[in-house]
């Protein structure tokens, strides 16, 4: 059995405690942290994420406003909504649930959002901020959840050999950048990587975000690893599972995140953290000007 099961709940509880008092202090200064969630259509996954995000924000003392549009909303109308939210000083963060319907240019909608309110790191400004280590925008929530999880459980990152499997803009690349920034030696793997199993076995910290249920089995693992499983998949019986074979991992790992109950929950808590941070940055700017 792994020495530590890195569950998400203790990370969230600790984070919320801190966020609640920060949100309270901001409210006392007349700035109540608020998130706007923009949803197009009635996709089940989006609705579940929205519910989760709203619950998590509420627990952290962050207000939530829901903006719903029909599946056939014109692109111009959606961009108009984002621009209005940019201007609305009572909204500090905007979450646009994606993917958007095919008739809408996803990048154009993302580009309309100001980086100050980009609490899920979807704009090019946020990406540039992450890569240049400047405080512009925010990192994608899931990537930051991964680092917050390691920090919460006292995992030393500096000097460690980290392997990230997956290179998406949402997860793999930003996680790799954040681990590099924390002085890990990082290898990023993808579908064209040769000897993936051997590379994974060499990792001291193994982060997996590929979207293939239980693919990372025994032959990819070695004793004493810290394993962060970001994958969300459903097996033949419809049960949620990660990208890592949890049974195999829990036999060899020093620490491992479960799915469900691991990174997924922390992701929405990080979203709330970003809204409070955005509100605080805007309040500071208002005080200075
Ligand atoms: P993408 O499909 O965008 O990216 C998958 C990445 O994995 C790609 O870089 C791909 O490589 C790589 N990959 C796929 N198959 C293999 C393989 N057999 N061997 C090596 N590399 C492989 O997925 P996301 O990054 O968006 O999501 C990954 C997983 O994380 C999914 O299960 C998703 O549900 C989950 N997720 C969880 C979140 C959470 O809150 N917990 C949030 C976001 C995602 P290549 O670039 O070569 O195609």
Oligomeric description of these chains: single chain
Q: What's the number of structural domains?
A: 2
Shape: globular
CATH class categorisation of the largest domain? Alpha Beta
- Total helical elements: 10
Strand runs, count? 11
What pattern of helices and strands is seen along the backbone?
A: EHEHEHEHHHEHEHEEEEHEH
Per CATH, the superfamily of the largest domain is NAD(P)-binding Rossmann-like Domain
User: How do the strands line up in the largest sheet?
Assistant: 1-11-8-7-5-6
Task: Detail the poorly predicted runs.
Answer: none
CATH topology of the largest domain, by name, is Rossmann fold
Mean of all residue-level pLDDT scores: 96
CATH architecture of the largest domain: 3-Layer(aba) Sandwich
Structural class: alpha/beta
Structure description:
With 289 residues, this protein is of the alpha/beta class. The chain has 2 domains: 30-116, 3-Layer(aba) Sandwich (Rossmann fold); 141-264, Rossmann fold. It contains 10 helices and 11 strands. It has helices spanning 8-28, 44-60, 75-87, 106-112, 124-131, 141-152, 172-181, 196-202, 246-252, 263-288; strands spanning 4-5, 34-40, 63-69, 93-96, 161-165, 185-189, 205-208, 226-229, 233-234, 240-241, 255-256. It binds NADPH dihydro-nicotinamide-adenine-dinucleotide phosphate. Residues 142, 165-168, 170-172, 189-193, 196, 209-212, 230-233, 263-264, 267 line the site of NADPH dihydro-nicotinamide-adenine-dinucleotide phosphate.
